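Example record for the data management plan.
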Amino acid sequence: MNSRLHFVASETPEAQKALARLRQLYGDIAPENADIIVALGGDGFMLQTLHGFLGRSKPIFGMNLGSVGFLMNEYREEDLQARLDAAEAAHIHPLRMSVQSPLGAKTALAFNEVSLFRQTRQTAKLRITLDGKVRLDELSSDGILVATPAGSTAYNLSAHGPILPINAALLALTPLSPFRPRRWRGALLPHNTKIRFDILDAVKRPVSAVADNIEVRDVTSVDIAEDRAISTTMLFDQGHSLDERILAEQFVY
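Corresponding structural encoding:
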């Protein structure tokens, strides 16, 4: 039995052309009636789609029409229903970021990472507390990020953080250009760790916090925890699961 599909695409001409072609080949069901969402674009558009369909219990199958496409499958028009029937599922949970700033409190979700960045030429100064215990009194750096396994091959990898298997019950804590302590390279944390960053000297050294594509500026504190109550399903071609991609990425040289 064929799955009922709803197609979404980024605004690029290539993705829009593919959208029209796939709708012609396979039809297009309203999202509330669809069995599977098919997303056409790059990793950024996949994140947008994950957020857009959050809470609808719709698995998402991405096809790459962007730059990197680590979270996507190869774009092919033929045999889509057969690919979906054989697809492997990855169940992921987002991070919930709760921030305080002079404008009040705000929360946001991140499937890839939560990042803190200095806003001026001066380094950020952060205190790191894990599960209520201060682990680092002061980190001077350009910032820091907390990455999920799904996000560990994105910005985290560029910042020399570790790659995590998708089913690993871990989070990556990775500093950005640390100045002091200079040799600290971050940590691997249990997935249920409650993480808190306090911004030291926040007026002189302002910091912004970003959860995927949501930014809050001039934060004074940031709390981060995995939200296990929220789950979304991504589908990958048989033999090319996210686990396999993460493993293969560690042998690229």
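Summary line stored alongside the record: Residues 95-226 form a domain with the Tumour Suppressor Smad4 fold (CATH 2.60.200.30).
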